[in-house]
Design goal:
Blueprint (H helix, E strand, L loop, with lengths): L10 E10 L2 E7 L8 E2 L2 E3 L6 H13 L2 E16 L5 E16 L8 E7 L11 H9 L4
């Protein structure tokens, strides 16, 4: 069991919506929750870290892409219960705008894969529900 499972309090997560040349940067999650699904890259915020610093660190660690993180643009709760109806995961996730600076996409850290995805490619991928909501709100799809 990871330290993220069965938390005593919500864990703050941060991600970045990075769009370059009409494509959004997505990762395929390697670990639960949402294992195997494609999603906005991100991870847990560390103590003393701003949302922007956390997003910049997480995107670089997961994808090899350096970004300049901007303002928060979307926030949501992620709660998942186990088969005994116990709270297994509880994240409060804040996604920020991310401006691509440089780098070549590579999957690293806790990502199975990472790539730039066009709107036309989304229906062929198992994309997380929250990622689809974010992309609709942002006008990407």
């Amino acid at each position: 069991m990871s330290r993220r499972e069965y938390p005593q309090r919500p864990i703050v997560g941060v991600g970045a919506i990075v769009i370059k040349d009409g494509r959004v940067l997505l990762v395929q999650r390697a670990a639960p929750p949402s294992q195997g699904l494609w999603a906005i890259p991100g991870g847990s915020l560390e103590a003393g870290e701003t949302l922007q610093a956390g997003a910049e660190r997480e995107i670089l660690e997961e994808t090899g892409i350096a970004i300049k993180a901007g303002d928060p643009v979307y926030a949501f709760d992620f709660l998942q219960y186990d088969d005994k109806n116990r709270l297994q995961y509880h994240f409060v996730i804040v996604d920020v705008e991310g401006e691509y600076l440089h780098g070549e996409v590579r999957a690293a850290d806790d990502a199975l894969a990472a790539r730039w995805v066009s709107p036309a490619e989304l229906p062929d991928l198992p994309v997380s529900v929250n990622t689809l909501k974010i992309l609709r709100v942002r006008g990407f799809i």
